[in-house]
Amino acid sequence: MEPMTIVLAFAAVAGLYMAWNIGANDVANAMGTSVGSGALTLRGAIIVAAIFEFGGAMLAGGTVTNTIRKGIVDVNAFGADPMVIAVGMTSCLFAAALWLNIATYAGWPVSTTHSIVGSVVGFGLIAGGFNAVNWGVMTKIVVSWVVSPLMGGVLGYMGFVFIKSRILNVDRPLLALRGWGPIMVFPIFAILTLSMLFKGLKPLKLDLDFGPAIGVAMLTGLLASIIAVPLLRRVARAASEDKDEHTYVAERVFLVLQVFTACFVAFAHGSNDVANAVGPMAAVFGAATGEVGAEVAVPHRVLLIGAVGIVVGLATYGYKIMDTVGKKITELTPSRGFAAEFGAATTIVLASKLGLPVSTTHTLVGAVIGVGFARGIGAINMRVVSGIVASWFITVPFTAILAAVLFMASRFVIH
Amino acid sequence: MRIPLANLLARNPLPKVSDLMKEVITASERIPELIALLEKGDQAGVERLAKEISVLEGKADDAKNAARSKMPVRLLMPVDRRDVLKLISEMDAIADCAEDVGVLLTIRPLTVPDGMESVLNLFVERVLETVREAAKLIDLIDDLVESGFSGPPAERVLEQSAILGRAEHEADKIQDQCAKVLFKEEADLPPVAVFMWTKVLNKIGDMANHAENVGDQFRLFVAG
């Protein structure tokens, strides 16, 4: 057998394992808020996740995939031998997946994104030297890790303050919701559509420029708002004068709205995190066919491996974690979950559009804390936050060293 | 398992405060009975009931510790953690005072001075009324959390705090009357008895004072 075939097989296995990890762990974290509030059943969450994760990866995941594939390291610095990239990226996948496995076992809140970025940097340093790493891109990525939870937090805070003052705490919450509901539906659908359209639908040759994309997004958002008007009117009419009943029904409406934001989160996660498995795999497959530096679309078979891995991860292990998350966070009411998910998903979609691989879980944690600062949540354990910050300082160096060691070892074996 | 979101959301410690209030009320509600036994001159009954109140106060202490143990330093809550701890100690102080009243009445057997009985009963009733108004505030915690500490539940808290404040003021006025009756009889009473009665009246009055402080803590919750 040719060495390249063996490497390809290894890459597929490593990519599958990485995708499994993402499906088992990350998706569960992303969807957990919806399961916890009761917006989605366990089965519903898995179906939503499977559809929108896949959609996000296929339609909007290209930019992040490219950043991981050749934005962080300069692929031309490794010389003419495609084997270097193939072996290196396979090592990266194994290093990241191994670290995730250790972290999962120990209960550390590390990020799949940080793991893969760290290992790609480690490989780049060893294979091509200091200048092979694109430090400008790397700095932008690291800054985005701090900025994305902050932005998620600010959006979550503003979202809940708005819901609190304009809907939950007025005399007739349902009448307020009848007015504001359609306006709240608008940005969800507009941003979702925009991220799909704006240079997103490349595989379907439907990519539009910014101008037309914004127009179509506005129209979709408007259409969703118009559909929401009669639905909310019917809910508002059915309610009696009782204030408590109003509040109760208003939360039920948020339950429905939260299903939309859950789709939004799954889409955002797919667009950003699936690339963690697909990006390096795409680089390996690209190298195998001799397209090292060329601008090629991610092969569909690679995307398929990523999608299959995620769905298998969800089905075999993710439901377990989601069940735990759902049971543990029941105190997050639908209005709170809505605010947090909307803040997080908007941030992640924006970051993916800029080609910045951010951590979905960390951004969602930031958004939940934002809602907490708006006095929306009974108690938040800030110890988790220090764990997350600590993991920033450990994950990248560790996966970098691990990837470098794996790369050197496998190069030694092959030669 | 790596589940940051599940670990992030801790159980809300505020409902534990309601458990403490139940114990405080149970202990305080025995005070009218204690005073009735004193008025009957049943010293053995007073001793027995004082012991019972002491046991109830112990239960309140347990509830207090349970509530405190749910509040580690690294907890982000919609209210300042120190304000909740202050609230807990004010509630606990109500039960402590109830226990002290029992203890004072057993240290030195006392008889109720002439003409004091009716005004004393009224005083105890007013103090208990104040404690009950404080308990109504605690019942509002769930609504407060649900509304994010603003809106109509916050307004209800301010109204209830005002009612509580007036109740305490009423109790204060009756306490002054009790003291007046006591000092009217000072010539016929042993000085030590006057001294002890002053202490007993102050302890009963302190129950209402601490109950009023509960209201002040709630005002801070809503203000922040």
Q: How would you describe the overall organization of this protein?
A:
- The complex is a heterodimer of chains A (415) and B (224).
- In chain A, 81% of the residues lie in helices and 0% in strands.
- Chain A has helices at residues 3-37, 42-60, 62-71, 82-106, 112-128, 135-168, 173-197, 210-238, 243-288, 300-328, 334-353, 360-373, 383-414, and one strand at 380-381.
- In chain A, helix 1 (3-37) runs antiparallel to helix 9 and helix 9 packs antiparallel against helix 10.
- In chain A, 60% of the residues are buried.
- Chain B is mostly helical and 224 residues long.
- In chain B, helix 2 runs antiparallel to helix 4, helix 3 (31-40) runs antiparallel to helix 4 (43-69) and helix 6 (117-139) runs parallel beside helix 9 (191-223).
- Chain B is elongated.
List the main descriptive attributes of the protein structure presented here:
heterodimer, A: 415 residues, mainly alpha, B: 224 residues, Methane Monooxygenase Hydroxylase, Chain G, domain 1
Q: Strands, helices and their partners?
A:
The complex is a heterodimer of chains A (415) and B (224).
Chain A: H1 3-37, H2 42-60, H3 62-71, H4 82-106, H5 112-128, H6 135-168, H7 173-197, H8 210-238, H9 243-288, H10 300-328, H11 334-353, H12 360-373, E1 380-381, H13 383-414
Chain B: H1 4-8, H2 14-28, H3 31-40, H4 43-69, E1 75-76, H5 81-107, H6 117-139, H7 141-146, H8 152-184, H9 191-223
